[in-house]
Design a protein that fits this description.
Length: 213
């Protein structure tokens, strides 16, 4: 009897996982941005905004009335996404700007148009494991993503913590903290080591040709 039951369970397992997938995703995506703040007059820059988490973040911020700049390496693809967001949200202030994060000249040229005296706060964000195009260049990783898709967040779910940090009023006092699932999260001892942080900063400035303060 046991020998017969085991193959039957193996056959039923994919079906059971498929049926349980919505509940599993909900359990793994406990963090949801609950802010209702509107953003008329605000300017937002979203990098990697033509796909995945960036696209979902840009869409939600545009829905709230912000002027949203999609900072993309592929401007043509960015224009298509901008039109899609404009149509979906009714917000025509969705614009595309060229930005290649692998090119320091591109970064500097982009930055000149914005981030001095703007009172920017910074947050480190862990979105979770998200179904995005990051694995598009690896057949093996795409297969793994498909195999474990029951446990992977959608881009919309993955965008929630970014939205939480961007929208929640009064969060400025937590600038510099690490967030996961819309809450301040624990970081390792190495990440809290001031000596290592200083060394990383100095090396980064040296590689980028920036003055070390």
């Amino acid at each position: 009897m046991v020998e017969l039951m085991f193959p039957l369970l193996l056959l039923l397992l994919p079906f059971l996982l498929y049926m349980a997938a919505p509940q599993i995703r909900k359990m793994l995506s406990s963090g949801v941005c609950t802010s209702t703040v509107q953003l008329p007059g605000k300017v937002v820059v979203v990098t990697g905004a033509n796909t995945g988490i960036g696209k979902e973040t840009a869409k939600e911020l545009a829905q709230r009335g912000a002027r949203v700049y999609l900072a993309c390496r592929d401007v043509e693809k960015g224009e298509l996404v901008a039109k899609e967001i404009q149509t979906t949200t009714g917000n025509q202030q969705v614009l595309v700007r060229k930005l290649d994060l692998s090119d320091t000249k591109s970064i500097r040229a982009f930055a000149k148009g914005f981030l001095a005296g703007s009172g920017v706060t910074t947050y480190s964000v862990h979105p979770g494991t998200v179904q995005s195009e990051l694995v598009r260049h690896s057949s093996f990783m795409r297969w793994m993503w498909w195999l474990f898709s029951f446990f992977i967040k959608t881009p919309q779910q993955g965008a929630q913590t970014s939205l939480h940090c961007a929208l929640t009023e009064g969060l400025e006092i937590l600038s510099g903290n690490h967030f996961s699932d819309c809450h301040v999260a624990w970081v390792s001892a190495q990440a809290r080591n001031e000596t290592i942080a200083r060394r990383l900063w100095d090396v980064s400035c040296d590689l980028l040709g920036l003055p070390i303060d």
